[in-house]
Amino acid sequence: MTDLEQKEEDVKEPEVSPVEEGREIGAWERLLGCTWRTPLGFLGVTLTTVSITLIVLGLIAHLSGLISNHYFAIFIFLFLPGMMMLGLGLIPLAYYFRQKKWFKDSLLNVEHLKIDLADKHHRKGIILFLVLSVINVTVLVLVAYEGYHFTDSSYFCGVVCHEVMDPEYTAYQRSPHAKVPCVSCHIGPGADWYVRAKLSGLRQVKAVIDGEFSRPIPAPVEHLRPARDTCESCHWPEKFHGKRVKEFISYTNNNQTDPNVQEVALRIGGRNPVTNDFEGIHWHVSRDIKVEYQPLDEKRTKIGTVKVTRPGGITEEYALNDEPAEEGVSQEWRTMDCIDCHNRPTHVYDDLERVVDFGLHSQKLNPEIKGIREDSIAILQIEYTSRDEATEKIVGDLLERMAKRHGADFVAEHQKELVISGSYLLEVYLNNVWPKMKVTWGTYRQHLGHQNADEGYGCFRCHDDEHKTKFGKIIRQDCNMCHDEPQ
Ligand code: HEC
Ligand code: HEC
Ligand code: HEC
Ligand code: HEC
Ligand code: HEC
Question: What is residue 17's predicted lDDT score, i.e. its pLDDT?
Fold first, then answer.
């Protein structure tokens, strides 16, 4: 006998009188009528009734815009339906225990459990059951529909796991994709990826509750959906054409006023109208080409053999001289896609020096103040213990350093400009550093060019003049293959 049954035993058995108000009470009525009087059944009925009432009220408040608090939405769309389902599950369970017991005590046999539509009471009971079921199902469908949209919103992804997703959400909000929902890139269309994402989402929620997630969250994302299914619903390689000119502006500590301007015209790529070949940077992802590679480390910063399949199935393999793969790195071929270059299309973190130079260029850091470049870089590198501490101290730290350099009078005289400069540094810090998540300058670097080639980022992972075919053909590093020769 289970504990539950034991407990039921203690409850006073309701009178099983065969006659009430002059008519006979059927086995069904006795069975159902008593079920909710057991502790388990009572709990089930109460849970269901209370949750469904709150859900209906909550839905009205939510849909009418009366309450738009997101924690409220979590309560209505996740917590209450869970309680309601639990309640609904308890009722048949209670019924089951009750029935089993009655069979055992021979109060009931299968003969009694006939449904007789000619019986008025049975008809009433069935109608009541159907009406209640319709109400329950309607409420659940409504909640599931609203909940589906809610759990797919960028807000849910970015804010509900606040501490964990804060870096990604912040970077995302100031990127070109700020209006593209997280799920367009992370899940994409189709039911199977949706289900996979929700399942892994459940695991992640558990990890967050247990506090057992990695800090920082590792990139590359292990099971990111191939970009062909996601990015290409908005950008498709066949439409690329021409060049894109980018300007890179930099200063030095000794020269904060005359920028060094480097212009590069990038050969974005596209179909050559004469030969109909796809050329240029997006050649790697053009329709008739497949580039695959074997990474030598988890972060894909070292690339081993590269395999190119051209139209007609002709393949070429470029191998690197006997560099071994790190232990535990899967040697499966990875098909190169958008993410192998655009690994930061939306979670864009700044480069420390570049962002200080941008400050000087936009006059947010006053370039007339000597030493401000050097001091700014030093301040942004201080390891504050928290974002709150940085918020408290950064402006003061700049004033202090400036006072050391130029004296207190200078600081008093230029107080206003220095505070503006300090505020810029704080803003930049808050966009890029999360001490709790161990996210700081350089944690997440991008692969687009070759500024961080020495750390294994960018095009030169393959374009290093060292990956060779058996015939000695190399993946080249000619400057003007990718862009016009810089001045
Ligand atoms: C434009 C497409 C796009 C959108 C929109 C997008 N992401 Fe990402 N996200 C990516 C890509 C691509 C990566 C993989 C980077 C890698 O593998 O190196 C990534 C990586 C991540 C990571 C792993 C850590 C990291 O920075 O690499 C997290 C966490 C994440 N995204 C969360 C979010 C959240 C939350 C949102 C919505 C607020 C969002 N993403 C919106 C494309 C996107
Ligand atoms: C839902 C549509 C959508 C999806 C999905 C999407 N993008 Fe975009 N992407 C945009 C829009 C809109 C812009 C902004 C265009 C503009 O500002 O001119 C953009 C801009 C860009 C840019 C140019 C940024 C710049 O510096 O100007 C790149 C690169 C890019 N996307 C790459 C990607 C990659 C890689 C993915 C997949 C991980 C992706 N996008 C997924 C809509 C999308
Ligand atoms: C071999 C590396 C590489 C691959 C693979 C790649 N891109 Fe690019 N893409 C670049 C570079 C480099 C640029 C130009 C630099 C920049 O915009 O900062 C660029 C520019 C872009 C732009 C802006 C174009 C413009 O005209 O301004 C978009 C949009 C884009 N890529 C989307 C994609 C998508 C979508 C994919 C996958 C189908 C993809 N890229 C694959 C390297 C790549
Ligand atoms: C995974 C390795 C790999 C990476 C990373 C890579 N490439 Fe390539 N790239 C190749 C291979 C292989 C070829 C073909 C070489 C050949 O045919 O001579 C190629 C060819 C090219 C070509 C010539 C295409 C044509 O017109 O035929 C350009 C341009 C190019 N890459 C630009 C880039 C840029 C820009 C980046 C970084 C944003 C980059 N590549 C990153 C492997 C790579
Ligand atoms: C495989 C393609 C490729 C090759 C080869 C290449 N570059 Fe670049 N380079 C790029 C891309 C892509 C960018 C743009 C990066 C970005 O958008 O942030 C760039 C940016 C630059 C910049 C401006 C950024 C900076 O660091 O100041 C300079 C300068 C530059 N390249 C010089 C060269 C020189 C010199 C060579 C020849 C030794 C060369 N590049 C070869 C792809 C290439």
Answer: 43
